[in-house]
């Protein structure tokens, strides 16, 4: 059985990192984008990374950040993977000595095959819901039928997922991984351990049906 990988994003507290790890998350995400209600500083992210055991990936999320700032964060925070969630081009994402993924908001006119070719050096594409003026964290899903089946093995599905929808999303899209933030929160930036465990159960249920 193929196992869908899971990233819990927007972690701000030690207890939430511990809950994500205990639930079996493959990766945890730290939002290094100050306008976000889930943002952490480099100092906070570095402290939270110290709680991670081997084989849990630390992901740093940036939105149209200056390269100098990204480089400075990498020096301070032991990130395994970079996530670029703005309008960055391929050259903006490369050159930091880290593996990276590119988030794409599902605008009506987007051509995912063209974007996959454009970001050929990315480890994967993360697909999120498009809302004007929002970089992410919308809490809304998009039409999963828009994801081409041949791209699914390189896709990380995001956007409005929670324990009640993730099994259906996995069964339909068959992505490499799923990403959740608001769907496991009690409040913005405050995760709920029960919701995290419920989400992970939903992923397992979806894997049985994919």
Automatic annotation (TrEMBL):
Residues annotated as signal peptide: none
Tagged with keyword Kinase: no
GO BP: L-tryptophan biosynthetic process
Domain of life from the UniProt record: Bacteria
Pathway: Amino-acid biosynthesis; L-tryptophan biosynthesis; L-tryptophan from chorismate: step 3/5
The entry's keywords: Amino-acid biosynthesis, Aromatic amino acid biosynthesis, Isomerase, Tryptophan biosynthesis
Xref: HAMAP family: PRAI (MF_00135)
Boundaries of every N-(5'phosphoribosyl) anthranilate isomerase (PRAI) domain copy: 6-201
Family listed: Belongs to the TrpF family.
Catalytic reaction equation(s): N-(5-phospho-beta-D-ribosyl)anthranilate = 1-(2-carboxyphenylamino)-1-deoxy-D-ribulose 5-phosphate
Pfam families: PRAI (PF00697)
Organism: Thiorhodococcus minor
Protein name: N-(5'-phosphoribosyl)anthranilate isomerase
Sample GO molecular function, one term: phosphoribosylanthranilate isomerase activity
PANTHER family tied to this protein: N-(5'-PHOSPHORIBOSYL)ANTHRANILATE ISOMERASE
Enzyme Commission number(s) from the entry: 5.3.1.24
NCBIfam families: PRK01222.1-4, PRK01222.1-6
């Amino acid at each position: 059985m193929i196992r869908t990988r899971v990233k819990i994003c927007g972690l701000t507290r030690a207890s939430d990192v511990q809950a994500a790890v205990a639930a079996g998350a493959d990766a945890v995400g730290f939002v290094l984008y100050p306008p976000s209600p889930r943002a952490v500083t480099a100092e906070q992210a570095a402290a939270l990374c110290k709680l991670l055991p081997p084989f849990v990936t630390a992901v740093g999320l940036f939105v149209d950040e200056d390269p100098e700032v990204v480089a400075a964060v990498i020096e301070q925070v032991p990130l395994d993977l970079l996530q670029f969630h703005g309008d960055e081009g391929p050259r903006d994402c490369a050159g930091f000595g880290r593996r990276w993924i590119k988030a794409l908001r599902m605008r009506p006119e987007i051509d995912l095959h063209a974007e996959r070719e454009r970001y050929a050096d990315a480890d994967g594409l993360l697909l999120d819901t498009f809302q004007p003026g929002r970089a992410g964290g919308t809490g809304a899903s998009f039409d999963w039928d828009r994801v081409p089946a041949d791209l699914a093995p390189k896709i990380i599905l995001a956007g409005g997922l929670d324990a009640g929808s993730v099994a259906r999303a996995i069964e339909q899209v068959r992505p490499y991984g799923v990403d959740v933030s608001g769907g496991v929160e009690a409040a913005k930036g405050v995760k709920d351990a029960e919701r995290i465990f419920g989400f992970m159960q939903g992923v397992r249920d979806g894997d049985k049906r994919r």
